[in-house]
Protein: dihydrofolate reductase
Organism: Paramuricea clavata
Amino acid sequence: MAGRKMSCIAAMSSKNRGIGKDGKLPWRLRSEMKYFTRITTDVKQEGQQNAVIMGRKTWESIPAKYLPLSGRLNVILSRTMSDAPENVLLCTDLQKALEVLSNPPYDQSIEHVYITGGYGVYKEAMSMPNLHRIYLTEVHMDVECDAFYPEFDKEDFNIVSDPNVPSEMQEEKGVKFQYFVYEKKNQVCDQ
């Protein structure tokens, strides 16, 4: 079994690949958050939803009023949590989560799987043959961070245009940022 198709989605500093500081995002860009929500929530087929997979620390970094992320099946990866909130899946690792999502009832109800962090989950996902895309927002800010997006070989990907992703430079509160969609060459996916 090749595995269920999945994509990573992240915003990082174009200067140092930073994605977080002290368990929080290093910037507050409302339009970028709306983009993240739209990409991870929108589905093509009525009656379906997307899954967002994240590590425990990423889950804990999200303000409680936004949990679980609405309109999506939330999946937390943790070896230390014993139970998850209602309507949230808890799995010990990424492989197990993808296995659960590839079987009933999720195999018919989940349209796409998005990896939303942190570093270790991104790194593992990017090494898997069923990685489809990386939705990467490059924020043109030099910020101090203690969490980073993993390096990847851009030769293994094509930058593609997606009608749902603006290609032009964005700006909010004087901060410039740009959306990129990297599609993996030679993909091996079941769904």
Remarks:
- The chain has a mean pLDDT of 94.
- Helices lie at 30-41, 56-61, 94-101, 106-109, 119-126.
- The CA atoms of residues 11 and 137 lie 4 Å apart.
- The chain has one domain: 6-184.
